[in-house]
Amino acid sequence: MRKTNKVFHLAIPCKELNETVEFYEKLGCKLARRYDDRVTFDFFGDQVVCHLSPNNIDTKPKMYPRHYGITFLEKEEYDSALEFAIQEQLPFFKDPMVRFEGKQEEHMTFFLIDPANNLLEFKYYHDSSMAY
What is the C-alpha to C-alpha distance for residues 28 and 22, in angstroms, rounded to an integer? Predict the structure, then answer.
């Protein structure tokens, strides 16, 4: 299990810094650092670095295999995140859905898409043992 003294780090491409900052701040992420070629965010307690790389943007993103996000352990937090995304009119890649219905790994999920076509998944498992 993860100790609280560790932070997961993810680096992704972005096509333009200002729109990237606007999206992630609107999502509720705190801008930690900004340089001429990248921005770093506190992404729900972990670190996401968006590197300016306009020639490396996925023009036809697909949910699988490349996405990242948050798995909520409390349904209320998932519900709040979904309501927030709707209220803030964040761009959905896939509307909320239930995956693996009726199975132990059943979960609720929705996907957002950032300005560089990076896909973000937010999900909640009814059986918390399936979170890993």
Answer: 10
Q: How do strand 46-52 and strand 38-43 relate by DSSP bridges?
A: antiparallel
CA distance 58 to 98: 26
Dump pLDDT digits (tens) for 27-44.
999 999 999 999 999 999
Cα 10 to Cα 7: distance, rounded to the nearest angstrom? 10
Could you give all domains of the chain from N- to C-terminal order, each with its CATH number? 9-131 (3.10.180.10)
29-119-49-59 Cα dihedral, nearest 10 degrees: -130
CB 97 within 8 A of CB 122: no
- Scan for tokens 């729900």, then name that residue: 44
Q: What does the chain come to in residues?
A: 132
